[in-house]
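Fold Annotation — chain and its backbone
Encoding — discrete vocabulary of local shapes
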Amino acid sequence: MFAVVRTGGKQYRVAAGDKIAVEKLAGEAGDTITLGDVLLAGEGDKIADAAKTTVSAEIIAQAKSEKVTVFKKRRRHNYRRKNGHRQQMTLLRITAVGDSKAEKKAAPKKEAAPKAEEKKAAPKKDSSEEKAAPKAKKAAPKKAAATKAAPAKKAPAKKAAAKKTESKK
């Protein structure tokens, strides 16, 4: 069975046993992760329901990709900049591609129910403090924005007037 998975803004066609290099993911070597954004799944010529398909992978290593040289130049201006960059990446081994998403969701729901009750009790106590804090934060940025906006509008008008007088000469 194969699946097309999206991670790190890119799409990968994977099957069980494949090794791929993706943008950096959280975790250490040996950890097992689930790639949740499955776009397409199938086997041979048949296409299966991607919503029910799950892709699990094992992190082989956290590494850096090959070095990319960035060179900027502007002709006739003596402008040259040279930089290098090595992108962080994660090496993955796909362990399973299958329709086990429904089974995995059923087990966590039983555990999640008690946690939800605890979370509901805690925010009720903090809600008055959280409501008061955003009002104070909103007032300060408005004053700062108003003071910065006034000088910015006056400066372009002077420049525009100066340009008009120069173009007439």
